[in-house]
Design goal:
about 150 residues, mainly alpha, 6 helices, elongated
């Protein structure tokens, strides 16, 4: 029984230490993420001022190569969005892009999978960036969105 009390006491001590340290660690991490996001947004805007929308997409996809994790995907998504906001339009960006939908169809999932494979981008973020591209090409309006007129709302 003494052994269990010691283990329980150790667990309580670890929990107390974590409770004290976790808020500052989380605050530091949030500040670091916010700064990183600001940097990627600024880089996207700077690049976009000298580029067209297709170049923005190509640069963001290239940014996925060699990086890992969700943070990489988020950063490239921030870069792409900021870049597309200021870049010169290029109609090539939207050629052959499936319509943007809230619920992707199986054919659209296959399109994304094959596109990423053909570009040799194994990173999961590739599909996320393609969704951004679809949304941009559709002005953010999904073809399967239910309008207020259809639902009788205002």
């Amino acid at each position: 029984m003494k052994g269990w009390k010691g283990v329980l006491l150790a667990l309580v001590a670890v929990a107390a230490i974590l409770a004290v340290l976790a808020p500052s660690w989380l605050e530091d991490w949030n500040q670091q993420r916010a700064e990183e996001a600001r940097q990627f947004r600024q880089q996207g805007q700077q690049f976009g001022q000298q580029a067209d929308t297709q170049q923005c997409m190509d640069k963001a996809l290239d940014g996925l190569k060699g990086c890992q994790g969700n943070t990489c995907t988020i950063n490239q998504g921030i870069f792409l969005k900021a870049c597309l906001e200021v870049a010169q339009p290029n109609p090539v960006l939207c050629e052959g892009i499936p319509p943007f939908r809230n619920q992707m169809l199986e054919e659209e999932k296959e399109w994304a999978r094959f596109f990423c494979r053909d570009k040799a981008i194994s990173h999961e973020g590739c599909r996320f960036l393609l969704r951004r591209q679809q949304s941009f090409c559709a002005d953010g309006v999904a073809v399967d969105a239910v309008s207020n007129e259809q639902t009788g709302g205002e």
